[in-house]
Amino acid sequence: MFSHIRTIWLTFLHLFKKKVTIEYPEEKVKLHPRWRGRIVLTKDPDGGERCVGCYLCAAACPVDCIALQATEDENGRRYPEFFRINFSRCIFCGFCEEACPTYAIQLIPDFEMGEYKRQNLVFEKEDLLINSQGKYPGYNFYQVAGIQAGVKGKGEGDNEEPPVDVHSLLP
Amino acid sequence: MNVLFYLSSAIAIAATIMVITRYKPIHALLYLVVSFMAVAMIFLSLGAPFVAVLEIILYAGAIIVLMIFVVMMLNLGSETAQQEKEWLLPKVWLGPSILSLVLLGEIIYLLLRSGTGNASFIFIDSKKVALSLYGEYIIAVELTGFLLMAGIVGAAHIGKHKKKHLHRFLQEEEVSTKIEVRSTKPEDEKQTKPVAYKP
Amino acid sequence: MTVTQHVLIVVGVLFVMLNIAAGLIWVERRMLALWQDRLGPNRAGPLGIFIVVADTLKLFFKEDWIPPFADKKVFVLAPAIVVGSALLSFVIIPFAPGIVVADLNVGLLFFLAMSSIGVYSIVLGGWASNNKYSLLGALRGASQMIAYEVFMGLSLMGVVMLTGSFKLSDIVAAQQDMWFIIKQPVAAIIFFIAGIAETHRLPFDIPEAESELIAGFHAEYSGMKFGMFFVGEYIGITLISSMMTTMFFGGWLGPAFLPPWAWFFIKTFAFILFFILLRASLPRPRYDQLMETGWKILLPLVLVNLLVTGAVALWTRG
């Protein structure tokens, strides 16, 4: 009986406690840097697309919401011809980000993407590409990759020895 | 007052006729509630508000609810209605109806003979009821008290839990220990044949 | 009192009561939220009060579905009984000296009669829905309400003994010197508990317990028929609160700096808030616990209370 009265009194005291409600549209929610929200495609420090069209994100996606088609430019640099994410299917699991070998696809702390038309949730490459390097500033895949794709000459990459003339190695 | 009396009497009679003609028992009971309310209204129009309100509280509010309760639990279907139809043969209802008709005739005769037929209006408040209950009719009140007491004791006796209900897991355990006891018996060298298991 | 005055009082009481019942939708959600460290509805209108309008409109425009397996006439009748019986009870409540629809000399018994009629809404609603959960809810509701009606009536009899009248204005007038809560504390507590059970409000909402019976007796109801049960519950809360005020807390009596009706409404509102606080804080008891508390604790208590009250009343009279 007394425990009941005590319960009632303690509940009453909650009237004067600070409320936990965040009044959303006026007061924004605090999102952490690694919060998994909207998916973006980032760019290199020199402004080129990071995505090399390897399909690993599409393969990793558990709900199959990523579709892309890889192609090559005249320098031999791979890039996606189209890159389409259907956000009405996306579950924001972040597997695509983990699968990406070039840090191109990233999840950013933004969730405000409500739409009245479902079709508007299908994001094309121009909607996904942002003019930023995302979480990995200074990283340039073609700068560390072995191949020559118009970013750097052969042997001029970071931590890369100049190419050895195989004829000079003959005994 | 007279208009009210005749109106509520008409409602009471109509509702009571509906009670005995309804097919579904719940509908019949609902009409019975209406009938009780009409009777309460008659009491009110005759100047007995206390009895009127008690009529609603006790009969309409408690007893009929209990009846509905029973009807809900019995789960009466079309078979029971059929059975009832078979029971209601003319030889069953003819006798009581003739007797009731005789009574009805007597009432009509009395009503007509009493002249104007105006019901006298005497206001009876709760104090008067109480004084007569605990004055003139004290023995009746005490006897009612005895009767209700007997009813309560009976209800308490019937409602008492006699059996101790064990959870089925606990029951299993009990049985298994008994089986163990039984299995040890054939090992006893004095007994040539195993004794039948007695719980 | 002229006829126009009387009509004005009737219309006024009806208007005020229905508005309070509707406004309680907002009050309850807001207060419940505050007691749970939330804010509650605060978007539509000032402090979110227009949620009442939004909710009412929603209820009106929802599909009013009568299940094909239901007993249609009874199904339609049940929600009307709950609102009707609760509103009829307000006939006898004196809001201020002279402001009462009908000051019956059996006023208190009339209140008890109407609350016993209110049981039918649950029983018939649950039975007519022709649904197992509804039927279970109806059975529970009926036995709970009949049981608690007994203690409710008996707890009020102590007050009647001290006053010597069933008339509510007499009862309020008898509290001029001292409120009956001081003379009859046990009766007041039991009346309040029984009142909660009678309105099947949250600690005792086992007829509709949503975690075990989905929604109990009104599981099949939708649209405005459900709305009637909803409003009926709020009218019931207001009724029990105003009865509590009238019977034990001096009704309209209070210091003169506020008019009598204001005192009445302040006290009633305090009890309504207490109802909501109970909802916010207490868990639902089991069904058999509720019935055992009723018959084995409250009934003896209330009988002892009656006995002591009678003895003291006789002794003081000499």
TrEMBL record, chain A:
Q: Where is the 4Fe-4S ferredoxin-type domain?
A: 39-71, 81-110
Q: What's one GO MF term for it?
A: quinone binding
Compartments annotated for it: namely: Cell inner membrane; Cell membrane
A Pfam family hit: Fer4_7
Key word S-adenosyl-L-methionine present? no
Q: Which GO terms describe its cellular component?
A: plasma membrane
Which enzyme class, named as a word?
Answer: translocase
Name of this chain's protein:
NADH-quinone oxidoreductase subunit I
Q: How does it assemble?
A: NDH-1 is composed of 14 different subunits. Subunits NuoA, H, J, K, L, M, N constitute the membrane sector of the complex.
Quick one: which residues bind [4Fe-4S] cluster 1?
51, 54, 57, 100
Source taxonomy lineage? Bacteria, Pseudomonadati, Bacteroidota, Chitinophagia, Chitinophagales
| Enzyme Commission number(s) | 7.1.1.-
List the cofactors. [4Fe-4S] cluster
Its membrane topology, per UniProt? Peripheral membrane protein
Reactions the enzyme catalyzes: a quinone + NADH + 5 H(+)(in) = a quinol + NAD(+) + 4 H(+)(out)
Segments traversing the membrane: none
UniProtKB/TrEMBL annotation, chain B:
State where the protein is found.
Cell membrane
Enzyme class, top EC level, equals translocase
User: What are the EC numbers?
Assistant: 7.1.1.-
| GO function terms (MF aspect) | NADH dehydrogenase (ubiquinone) activity; oxidoreductase activity; quinone binding
**Which intervals carry biased composition (Basic and acidic residues)?**
180-192
Give the catalysed reaction(s), semicolon-separated.
Answer: a quinone + NADH + 5 H(+)(in) = a quinol + NAD(+) + 4 H(+)(out)
Q: Which residues cross the membrane?
A: 6-23, 30-50, 56-76, 88-112, 137-158
Region (Disordered) location: 180-199
An annotated GO cellular component of this protein is: plasma membrane
Give the keywords, sorted: Cell membrane, Membrane, NAD, Oxidoreductase, Quinone, Translocase, Transmembrane, Transmembrane helix
**Could you tell me the membrane topology recorded for this protein?**
Multi-pass membrane protein
Q: Does the keyword NAD apply?
A: yes
Among InterPro entries, the record links this protein to: NADH_UbQ/plastoQ_OxRdtase_su6, Nuo/plastoQ_OxRdtase_6_NuoJ
UniProt similarity note: Belongs to the complex I subunit 6 family.
PANTHER family xrefs: NADH-UBIQUINONE OXIDOREDUCTASE CHAIN 6
What the protein does?
NDH-1 shuttles electrons from NADH, via FMN and iron-sulfur (Fe-S) centers, to quinones in the respiratory chain. Couples the redox reaction to proton translocation (for every two electrons transferred, four hydrogen ions are translocated across the cytoplasmic membrane), and thus conserves the redox energy in a proton gradient.
- Quaternary structure note: Composed of 13 different subunits. Subunits NuoA, H, J, K, L, M, N constitute the membrane sector of the complex.
Q: Which NCBIfam families match?
A: PRK06638.1-1
This protein's name = NADH-quinone oxidoreductase subunit J
Its source organism is Paraflavisolibacter caeni
Gene coding for it = nuoJ
From TrEMBL, chain C:
- Where is the protein localized? Cell membrane; Membrane
List the EC numbers from the record. Answer: 7.1.1.-
Q: Which UniProt keywords apply?
A: Cell membrane, Membrane, NAD, Oxidoreductase, Quinone, Translocase, Transmembrane, Transmembrane helix, Ubiquinone
Q: What class of enzyme is it?
A: translocase
Which cellular component terms (GO) are annotated to the entry?
Answer: plasma membrane
Membrane topology term reads: Multi-pass membrane protein
| A molecular-function term among this protein's GO annotations | quinone binding
Keyword Amino-acid biosynthesis in record:
no
> Which Pfam families did the record assign?
NADHdh
What domain of life is recorded for the organism?
A: Bacteria
Q: Which InterPro entries match?
A: NADH_UbQ_OxRdtase_su1/FPO, NADH_UbQ_OxRdtase_su1_CS
Q: Which residue ranges traverse the bilayer?
A: 7-27, 43-61, 73-96, 108-127, 147-166, 178-197, 234-255, 261-282, 294-315
User: Does Cell membrane count among this protein's keywords?
Assistant: yes
The processes (GO biological process) annotated in the record are: aerobic respiration
What does the subunit section of this Swiss-Prot or TrEMBL entry state?
A: NDH-1 is composed of 14 different subunits. Subunits NuoA, H, J, K, L, M, N constitute the membrane sector of the complex.
Q: Which family does it belong to?
A: Belongs to the complex I subunit 1 family.
User: PANTHER family from the entry?
Assistant: NADH DEHYDROGENASE SUBUNIT 1 (PTHR11432), NADH-UBIQUINONE OXIDOREDUCTASE CHAIN 1 (PTHR11432:SF3)
Q: What does this protein do?
A: NDH-1 shuttles electrons from NADH, via FMN and iron-sulfur (Fe-S) centers, to quinones in the respiratory chain. The immediate electron acceptor for the enzyme in this species is believed to be ubiquinone. Couples the redox reaction to proton translocation (for every two electrons transferred, four hydrogen ions are translocated across the cytoplasmic membrane), and thus conserves the redox energy in a proton gradient. This subunit may bind ubiquinone.
Q: What name appears for this protein in its UniProt entry?
A: NADH-quinone oxidoreductase subunit H
